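Chapter summary example: a protein plus adenosine monophosphate.
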Amino acid sequence: MRLVFLGAPGVGKGTQAELVASKFHQPRISTGDILREAVRNKTALGLEAKACMDQGKLVSDAVVVGIVKEKLAEPVCAAGFLLDGFPRTVPQAEELSKMLDSKGQRLDRVINVLVSREDIVRRLSGRRSCAKCQAVFHVDFARPQREGVCDRCGGELIQRSDDRRETVEARLVVYENQTAPLIDYYRRKGLLSELDGSGSVEVVHKRMVELLAAQGLS
Ligand code: AMP
């Protein structure tokens, strides 16, 4: 199973990708998670990426393509992978296609998760993640048992710096200008499926599993 999850920030593609990854035992590659870890560890990559991320801008194509190339070369990705948050520009998509061609592989499906703009802002502004294990919660839709405390590891729940309202607006503009063109790009290749991302995590997951089954991916 080789899938790409596409969608504006806040549509829940990370959550859905994680559920699909664990159901089908496939590795999930989130460029956002990899970059945030580099920022936390203050590596050279993290220091380079931080300024862009804090402003809601994209990190350079060369940097993220390098990250994905390294990941896809790992043996664990040989039988399949789910890409979450990559590609985000047409040049990234072209690089991905070259990487796969060179291994004689191809994408099975690109799933575009759709949610209204109003819901996106609500989902992002209420999102909280654990500072220790990065588990994701929401102040309304996925509340932790104890406010501000991670159910999984007891860590402190914090708001991602790029989930502040001003940055959210910037990220949505970047999405419209740089990432949304990928919808047509993959549609023209006959790879695109659209998934209604409205409703609870469970409802969307059920739709996702049905969509994959309809594509012969189960
Ligand atoms: P995400 O967690 O996917 O929303 O990503 C958070 C931030 O990481 C984005 O706003 C970008 O600054 C950066 N980022 C993640 N993936 C990419 C990518 N494929 N291309 C460029 N920047 C990225």
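Key point: The longest helix spans residues 165-179.
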